[in-house]
Structures are given as structure tokens and as C-alpha cells.
Design brief:
alpha+beta, about 30% helix, globular, UDP-n-acetylglucosamine1-carboxyvinyl-transferase, Chain, binds uridine-diphosphate-N-acetylglucosamine, 2 domains
Length: about 425
Amino acid sequence: MRAYKINGGKKLEGTISAQSSKNSVLSMLAGAILTDDTVVIKNCPKISDVINMCKILSSLGASVEFDDNDLIINASQVNSFCVDEKLCKKIRTSIYFLGSLLGRFGRAKLCFPGGCNIGARPIDIHIKALSELGVKFDYNEKNISCSKQKTVGDREVVFSFPSVGATINLLLFSVINEGTLVIKNCAREPEVVDFCNFLNSMGAKIVGAGQSEITVYGVKQLHGTKYRPISDRMEIGTFIFATYCCGGKVNITNVNLKNSDLLLDKISNNTCSVAYINDIITITSNNIGEGFDVQTGPFPQFPTDLQAQATVYLSICNGRSIVIESMYENRFSHLNGLKQMGADVHVFKNVAFIQGVKRLQGAKVFANDLRGGAALTIAGLCARGQTLMCGVEHVERGYLDYDKKLAMLGASIKTIDL
Ligand code: UD1
């Protein structure tokens, strides 16, 4: 196990560059097997989730290599529709190969996916929709085996919840097809829009991305592309809360988002500001502000992937805040560490009641998941004294050079082996 050794209390000052969106890239890696041509994902972060998806691609027969920061994939030699069990369990988005292998071969065999320890994360919505479209499933507790019985034709599916994963899987399944598919109550996240733009750059015809109804006009085949994904709004949001907590002024360059993607109204505060001009985000924080309430939900509601980081900030804000986690049942695990550091937090079911304290105190804390680890690191950065944030492996699933970027901003943070 590795840990971040942090000496808290330093302001954050300086400039860092944004990474591309983890969630966008993960869907694109599954999408790359829908063509025999070469797909280039520009500025692709070498994070462990990406590496694990690349291992799946290689095991299926694709050639996958980094050229500096660009990832080059050629799937012309992909000849298997079975995903290796061990690789499948390493990452949640292995489930995207359900849609992409069905799209390519009309068949797929994989096991139930692994991923973050944040809750049950069922895939019933994916399976129900694909079944309605004529996919025949055969599964037990471990494995899923399925095959497409016929071409989709002109159809519509209605999701019971706007699941990101189910939307991606349905897109992967239906872009190469003879009919038209309408997906109702689909996810509206900017990463879903980005994925649709990526597929369209490969020759797909997808209309309505970003709204709750997407129409996929099936095409005969897709071709290669060179595509630059959007910036990672979760990484940017993490640095926004880090700056809010520590004080200072941070610039994030190389940002290619729409203003509305950032949901700035949900994360701005009376004493901190975030400005987004051209491709630079500037965060300024002079004082700790008043607490506010947060309820997570599908886009454009407050993102669950920023809840842990927001909770750390609220724990040192003035007054009382309430955080409602509506998406995942295990997403408060960072609160154990936060309480050890002196936060005044009480949890009842999926609601955290927070009374702001003046200062957190350094401690040895353990990350249980990706965002929780990023959040406890922020807690260490603004705490008095030293913090050992154990479980860096979780953070490295989604953040490229998190420690190095924070150090560039003046934080005292070092990665050590325990
Ligand atoms: C994606 C993101 C993740 C983010 C989440 C919610 C990726 C790689 N991951 O995860 O970072 O936290 O969206 O914004 O993009 N659900 C079901 N049945 C299903 C599918 C989902 O009940 O078949 C539930 C889940 O348990 C969860 C909620 O729906 O409570 C949201 O899940 P979903 O939108 O599918 O999230 P993911 O695609 O797994």
C-alpha cells in the first residue's frame, strides 16, 4: 500500500493543466472496437482505469499503444467476443464491452464487473433495455453470455433511471444497425455528449445528445477517428474544492468544456470564485465561506463524483450544511477519516449533517474509493499538522499525477511506500 504524506496548511498557488475526462475516455476505449480503422484518443490520461481497459482491448486482439499522450488503438485483429474474467473484475466499465462486442459480433461473454466500492451498482437497466431489443441473455451469479437475435429495426426504449452506463451500452449496441433507436430518459452528462460526438466523428448518426431523448440512426459501418475528449470536470471540481479549502489562486489551463458543463452555480460560494475564460479556469479563495446544502443526482444536478470533496469543504465552512447522497449507498466512507481529523459530521442513512469546525487536524486515514481518496487528500492539505492518506491506488484510478499537480501548486505532499 502507498500513502500520501501531507504537511497541511499551505495555500495553493500556480497553474496546472486539465486532464481529459476519465469517464469519456473509458467509453471511447470500448467504442474503438466498432471499427477496423485506427482510432486515436488525444491527450489520453495514463491512469490505472485506462490501463485496465487497454488490457481488455489487448486481450481481445487489438493493438494498443501510447504515442506520447495520444492513445492509438487498432481493433482490426479483434477476434474474440469473450472478456477475460480477471480483467473484467478489475474495472466497472468492462461492462461497456457488453454493448461494443454485441455491436461488433452480435455476441458477448463477460462476467459481472468490478470497480469502486461505492455501492451495489446493478446493471438491470442495461439488461432490460437490451432484452427489449432482442438480445437473448443467459447468465448466472458470475457470468453473462448474450447474443443478438435479430437486427433492431425502428424501436424505442425508455429507461427507468437516466443511467450513464446503460446509455453508453445502448449507444455501443445500436450505432451500427439497420433501424433507428430512440432512447428515452437517457443520461445527459457532458461525458455522454462527448461520447456521442466521438461516435459521430467515426461516422455514426446520433442526434439529441445532452437531452433526455437520443435518437440513433443506424449506419452500416464506422471509420477511424482522431478525437480529443473533453476535460475532466471531476478533476477540475476536485481542484476547485482543494483551492476553496486551502485558500490561494489556481489556474487550470487546457480546458475544453462548455460553461454549463461545470455547474458553477452549484459549487460557487460567497467568498470563493471560479472564472472560466477562453480555455482557462481561475479559482480564487480568500476566506472560508458559509456552508450550503448539497443533494447529488443525475446531470444537471450536483455530481455524486464531487460529493466527497464538497463534504470536506463544508466541514470547515461556517455553520451547518446538509449533504444528501441520492446516487450510491456507500459513498460516505470518507467521513470516517474526516471525523478522525476533527470534522463534526453525523450520518443518518444517506444524509450527512455537518457542523463546520475552525480547522481539521492531521491524522492517518484510509481511502476506500477513488473520490473519497481525493477528498481525504484535500482534508490533509488544509489540516493542521501531518496526514497520512493511505490507499493512493484508489486515487490513481482516476487522477493523473494528483500528487505532482498539488505539489506544483505549493502543497507539501509526497507519495511513500508503507
Ligand atoms: C457513471 C460514472 C460514475 C458516476 C455515475 C453517476 C463512468 C465510467 N462512471 O457510473 O463516475 O458516479 O455515472 O453519475 O462514467 N443503476 C441501477 N441499475 C442499472 C444502472 C444503474 O440501479 O442498471 C443505478 C446505480 O446503482 C446508481 C445510479 O443508477 O445508483 C447511477 O448509475 P449510472 O448512471 O449507471 O452510473 P455508472 O454508469 O455506473
